[in-house]
UniProtKB/TrEMBL annotation, chains A, B:
It holds the Pfam family AP_endonuc_2. This is Xylose isomerase domain protein TIM barrel. Keywords: Carbohydrate metabolism, Isomerase. It comes from Beutenbergia cavernae (strain ATCC BAA-8 / DSM 12333 / CCUG 43141 / JCM 11478 / NBRC 16432 / NCIMB 13614 / HKI 0122). The lineage of its organism: Bacteria, Bacillati, Actinomycetota, Actinomycetes, Micrococcales. Gene3D superfamilies: Divalent-metal-dependent TIM barrel enzymes. GO terms for molecular function: isomerase activity. InterPro entries: IolE/XylAMocC-like (IPR050312), Xyl_isomerase-like_sf (IPR036237), Xyl_isomerase-like_TIM-brl (IPR013022). Residues 25-277 form the Xylose isomerase-like TIM barrel domain.
């Protein structure tokens, strides 16, 4: 099935975490994918300009750059650092050739932390989640002009509510759309990641709204497996292994008018231990079985 | 501080899991609590009539019986078994002297399972969460007349979305209120448990709605600790140890007009290993510090 019907499929480099950028691009291209989704660690290793060339030479698109965000800092230094880092991420997204910068907006600032990604074992500090969300809105307003100038969309990713304390105070699509609302649809959008949103009782309404507002920046497919891994961040599965209803959610996304790339991003120790070419093949098979048949607008 | 200002505080027997019913009631009464929340395992051990007598003789109320639910079975046998069990739970609630039966409505039926509490390691079966929610609505309609006759309210507990696959397809207060809407407020209500709802971006709106509809059946306080325990069900903490903003949420509940008991239900291996009298004292101190000062309507 190599190549057949995979033109919208994108391999996220985090799914083949141990591969270099070149290796990840190579296995995706050989398996017939249309695109790759890039994490910044791989881009930084290879360099921005070489990354763009490697992907282009393989005949692939960049579906998104992951990630900007961590916008909840409450100190002046933390805010300045977050804005600097996100402006660099916006520039990098444009330079590697994608319009979509995935934003993981950050959790509650831990005790004594200036913001930024969570530190293992950090104590609870600020508990005001309502104020943290307001700071995210303020930082989006700060960043939107730079994003618009660069032709890059800030793609807000609601994370599963189990990450609300330490990773993302955006927990639902409706909330992401409310935060995007003050901005043009090509400047602030939303990510629909099945792992994070499958449980949402408002999913049908929110996906339709996201489509009507033309804000769906990325559709990401990954399954919800049980039991949760000791680190729940590493608890994702190949589509078909867990509890997510891929046909139903894919039809919602298609009916909302989304016709962009479908990225597969899996964090899982077993997947990372598998040779990258095998992972690319398995993902392609699962996509062809559980997702692709439902991508046609009903 | 024994007894001072603790008249609305209720000790859930699950918090002192290794205590017998008599021991749990005794430590709650000695610490000055006004009530106890009962799990059915302790009631079954002691017997229904003796349970009512033990609590009454200690001068306490029963704030709730936990739990009915597991209503998502899709087979005739599974539905019949669920209805039988829930009618017994309704009768037991009335007999032990509470009007509130906490309902954990059940997750997706596992492969080959007739429904009921999750079995460790069960494979994914039915993935249609929308249909599972519709079956919950049907079962509530089946049970409502029996509950009304018994003077017992079915108190729908939204569980944190990380339990949506295996324990409760009700994940938000708004969704619980929508399911309650066809029924009188004294027949179907909702539980506000901080552990399960603290992350919800619609929390303020939903708590206010629950109050306006007079459906708040129980306010339960328990903290969200990180990192999650290997079994996330056992990841709760004493109020003040984690990320929950107790003053803010308690004020929402008070402003919504709730004037009932405040139950503390903690599942945590360290808490269970602590002598019950010490647990009761610690919970009372945390309640007095983080919760009670904010229970006055603002």
């Amino acid at each position: 099935m190599t190549g057949a019907g995979l033109e919208r499929l994108s391999l996220n480099t985090a799914t083949v975490k141990r591969a270099t950028l070149g290796e990840a691009v190579d296995v995706a291209a050989r398996a017939g994918y249309g695109a790759v989704g890039l994490w910044r660690d791989r881009v930084e290793e290879a360099g921005v300009a070489p990354t763009a060339r490697i992907v282009r030479d393989a005949g692939l698109r960049v579906s998104s750059l992951c990630r900007g965000g961590f916008l909840t800092a409450s100190t002046d230094d933390g805010v300045r650092a977050a804005l600097d880092d996100n402006r660099r991420a916006i520039d990098d997204a444009a330079a590697v050739g994608t319009t979509e910068l995935v934003m993981v907006v950050g959790g509650l600032p831990a005790s004594g932390e200036p913001g930024g990604p969570p530190r293992e074992g950090a104590a609870p500090g600020d508990r005001d989640v309502v104020a943290a969300r307001a700071r995210v809105a303020d930082r989006l307003a700060d960043l939107a002009p730079h994003a618009a100038d660069a032709g890059v969309r800030l793609a807000l990713e609601p994370l599963h509510p189990m990450f609300a304390a330490d990773r993302a105070v955006i927990s639902t699509l409706a909330q992401a759309l409310d935060l995007a609302a003050p901005h043009p649809a090509d400047v602030v959008g939303v990510v629909v990641d099945t792992y994070h949103v499958w449980w949402d009782p408002a999913l049908e309404t929110s996906v339709a709204r996201a489509g009507a507002e033309r804000r769906i920046a990325s559709y990401q497919v990954c399954d919800w497996n049980l039991p949760l891994a000791a680190d729940p961040l590493l608890s994702r599965g190949y589509p078909g292994d867990g509890y997510v209803d891929f046909p139903a959610i894919t039809r919602l996304v298609a009916d909302a008018g989304y016709d962009g790339d479908v990225e597969c991003e899996i964090f899982h120790a077993d997947v990372w231990a598998t040779p990258a070419a095998d992972v690319a093949r398995i993902v392609a098979e699962r996509y062809a079985t559980h997702v692709a048949p439902h991508l046609t607008r009903g």
